What does this fold into?
Amino acid sequence: MNRPDITELLGRRLTENADRLYRLAFRYVKNEEDAMDIVQDAACKVLQYRDKIRQPEYIDTLLYRVTVNAALDFLRRHKRESVGLPAVEGGREDDHGDLYALDLLDVLDEKSRAIVILRFFEDRTLAEIADIMQMNLNTVKTRLYAALRTLRRELDKSGR
Amino acid sequence: MANLKNRLRQMRSEYESQSAPDELRQQLQALVKANARPPKKRAAVIWLRRIGGSAAAALLALCIAVNASPDAAALLADIPVLGPVVRIFSFREYEDSQSGIELKLSSPHVSGLGDPEAEERINALFDEYADQIIAQYEQDVAAMAGKDEGHISINSSYSVPINTDRQLTVAIDTTIVMASAQERFTYYNIDKQTGDLVPLSGLFQDGADYIALISDEIKRQMRAQMEADKSVYYWLDDEIEDWNFRAIDADQPYYVNESGELVISFDKYDVAPGYMGSVSFVIPEDVVSGIILPGGLLDQ
It folds into this structure.
């Protein structure tokens, strides 16, 4: 193999995956500006530590991972800023119908949300997800099944 | 059940219909451009890692090819005398340049250890290392043939940092330059009394947990250095956990310095970002004093 420069490779992968990373970030913040910030944070982090990338074939997993981390960081910071304010929730009632099918994911905790997205929308294997989320395989499985149960329950509720 | 499946399908198409704003793409490109640096630095590391693999097949042919020189006698006459008896001399010189890749290699042999078997064993190690480098070089030349020129320069030489009555350390310094340099040190520590190569574990009593003791000490030093100097950074408590230093390898490269202290060394990128270069840590005697092998290289 020719030895591609890692910065160049990262640049290419970042552009190729911009949509994927952006969607993932957007699921957490639901606005364009913050989602863009998160992806940029993630890109900075990867570029900063690119010397440590030993296996270029894992760059995609790495990009997901830093993006999830950046999103969770963002939420953490944001929560701290808005201490004391009631969480904005329940804005959509059944009879409005669901504005977005995707908003169903909001019933899940933040990590489970990423697991469901990666598994069902990004077709990642459980092993890859374990790597992205820095969890062991069994934890990923358990969380995924629990998440599916929660989603099903939620659907049944609104279906009634 | 079907309900959830349908819903997931619906969510997926909704999810996939969303794309990143062009502005984000531009920002990402700008970010990458701002981070661009002299190219191919990282590639050198990949090259080095490949050397680690076995290249034993190429061993014999190359050995003959490079050493069947009529100048061998002249070369032997020039042997520098380092210790009273033990000699380190350049056994193989290899210089070649093809397809923009250049290799200069000088690999030693040792003589005068008084134990022919031990000598043979040690010299075989030097040869093997040289063979790996040459084999990798030839493979890369073949891969590069007809393509763009490689602009790679590889230089492998040796030095003898320590040669006391008891102990001989030969350091092989392999530098690979591809716009910027990557360096790897390999130390061979030889106990002159036994003629044996001494791995790190050979400095300590059987079963002693030297890995934990030394690793903890290194972590302590890393933290202290980072605290004292903001420009120093080690991968230690980094949030990307698998990059963090946890413990030394059982056979981590080391040498014993002139004051009889253990020095543990790490290659560039092993425990710190590239700008830190290769780093080493002097382990104070009292850290390991409880587990030192009596009569070993550290017990002098």
Remarks:
- Residues 208 and 290 of chain B are 9 Å apart (CA to CA).
- The radius of gyration of chain B is 25 Å.
